Fold:
Amino acid sequence: MTTTAPNGTLIRTLRLAASYTVADLGAVIGVQPETIRRLEQSDPRMLNVLTGRQLIGLAKALGTDLNSIVSSDTPRPVAATDPVQLLAALHGQRQHIKKTVLAHSLEWDLTRLDAACSALDDRLRPVGLVIRQAPRGWKLALLEGTITRTVSKRLAATQADLHGLEHATVRVLHSVAYARPGTAPFATTGRPPSEDRLNRLAALERLGLITSADQHPAMSQSLKYALNLP
Structure:
């Protein structure tokens, strides 16, 4: 049997985003503040307490639709493309993105965004990445917070998926990511990089993943910022 209840998490998130207090929102739809609190606790009895007009008024006040503020214990399926779209929206951002802004940009409700986030997180963690959720918003970040050999390989593999990089180019990016600051990653033999490597470095620089391809290659500031690195 499917149990229907208020989507308390979404109601609270949208209320805070709209700068409503519990009392303010209650006044808008004509109920006591305690009713709003119980809605945010997903109390299923509240769906019998509120009239249809009040529920519609609640959805309108929160800027969403009636179906979004009512949830059931039947999980909503995640579209196969949702995690990919979410990753594209987060990747390379130079600042945290508010959850509500992110949902609006993707034209999703918050329930769909949360489901996509969970699915994407399952894919990101094995490669050392995470969606960092903070009060100021969401952004893509490294789990460890520092570059290790393992992390640099995972980082390069993730960028390969995003940009369709060849395996040889992935190895070059891995070498750059793991190199010590101020050192050339290919100078171990005392010989300059081959023309092939120089070409791959130039391609990575055009993608905005590295800087100074012809001198001392390093991860670009935008990629560091996107991964929460200093």
Summary: The chain has a mean pLDDT of 76. The first strand starts at residue 4 and ends at 6. The chain has three domains: 4-72, 82-142, 149-226. Residues 110-124 form the longest helix (15 residues).
